[in-house]
Amino acid sequence: MAKTLMKGNEAIAVAAMMGGLDAYFGYPITPQNEVSEYLAKHLLPNGKVFLQAESEVAAINMVYGAAAAGKRVMTSSSSPGIALKQEGISYIAAAELPCVIVSVMRGGPGLGGIQPSQSDYYQATRGGGNGDYQVIVFAPETIQETIDTLKEAFDIADYYRNPVMVLVDGLIGQMMESVDLEKQSKKRFLPNKDWAVSGTKNHPGRNIVNSLFLDPQQLENHNIHLQEKYQLIKKNETKTEVFGIDDADYVIVAYGTMARICRSAIEILEEKGIHVGMIRPISLWPYPKAIFTEINPYCKGILCTEMSMGQMLDDVLIANNGRLPVGFYGRTGGMVPDPEEVVEAILNFSNRVVR
Amino acid sequence: MEIKYQKTKGLTETPLSYCPGCTHGIIHKLVAESLEELGLLDEAIGVASVGCSVFSYQFFNCDMIQAPHGRACAEATGLKRVLPQNTVFTYQGDGDLASIGIAETIHAANRGENITVIFINNAIYGMTGGQMAPTTLPGQKTTTSPEGRNTLIQGYPIKISEIFSQIEGVAYLERVSATDPKQVLRAKKAIKKAFSYQKEKRGFTLIEVLSSCPVNWGMTPINALKWIKDTMTQIYPLGVFKDKGEDHV
Predict the structure, then answer these.
(1) pTM for the whole structure
(2) Whole domain around residue A90: which residue ranges?
């Protein structure tokens, strides 16, 4: 297949269109503006909808409206912008609407900075909206993987009627890599969207998209239904890359940009005679917890590395369940660690142990 | 026997949840009748908001979605952009539209979104038990302005129709009430006109309806209607604020 050199944010836009994007709603924020700029140029001439909203809040609610009509809808933003969308995300999850949300992380908290960061792991996997809801979160490592993930994200969102977030950081958004756009994604059987609103002349009965259940029993039933769906998602959509954990001296856990850095660190350590395996969660929710039990019992420790002060670390600790020593190494605020720093953290693992 | 009058097909059989003496019910009927008479019921999609009319998705006999507080015009924008042939309307109270949702509303208007907004102004937060609204009148007592709204402390009632009349994207804008048969007929004419304009793709239409809240105003239903006529219309005069008319087809 022909390869093209492409910038991450642009690739996100191209892949979304290949994934069947009908409508995009967004608000300008660095470092993801190329996503909306590309779509502004290409959606309207293709008979699709592009609209720059007046706010992040309005953008996610426009997504809600267009998703309720059964269309393939996306918004993209970065950390403080995703914070503003949380209310809408809770409603979309509650009303069981499919949509794709791209989050290109930058340093926080507050206005923070505009350099790459992974400090919105909690925001993505735990969310800030109200209630017991889950967003399916994928964190690709390369631009190719970002493209493949995004194309599939629309199918996954439609299949489960649930928001899917593609979580990258500013580095993946801004860098260029050689990619193959034609790579085929897994084909899924997708049910008809007979729940969508389109006017009663287009379907039997009335369709209502709603998240209000004033009767507590009805609301509990709705929650139980959502949890059953989340269990199914855990079973079917947990995605991870693993290598070397059956005979590793240490295991590194990292996702996205941090995983790229750790690959180099692992090579350097190999030359030093230290064998390090890796768990790279691709789905952050559902989190690949089960794989941690397969780490060999003689492993001296698990190093969780993040471009944050330690957020995925919680999931690592839960997954490890006290079995092996867990350490942490992180940089934040837009500081991207060198592989040497990770090497150093493994060499001095005992100083890194958190539990 | 010839049927002279019957219940509109635009409303479901679900009993309305509104308090006695509240004019939400009349306004619901006018919206539903308008959609039915214009033949738009089977293509209409309504957006329910948060407030007393939160259950309007159970009452209007068409496809409905329920929006977060204040965001109805954003939902309506998303809907209308992907379904331009459908009739899309929101039904919002003053807390929803004029307070927490003013940004979504004003920008939808400014973009000339081809939607119809039914704006119920009863100068109070009804659903939550009678708190001060942005539309509360000076001196009006509410649970959060117990001494009466003091403009020096709480500012002034916000005049949506006056503000929105300055916005280019607005095609039709009228303030009506439902205090007596004459006003009810006027209100229906306005609502019908707004939906017709939407069908003709003329732009954003908004009908502000002054509505009564006897329970939270502490009045009898009759006195509440009288208060709208005598007092509310002093601050919120009725009439057409904008009509792009024939020149904007």
Answers:
(1) 0.97
(2) 4-195+209-237
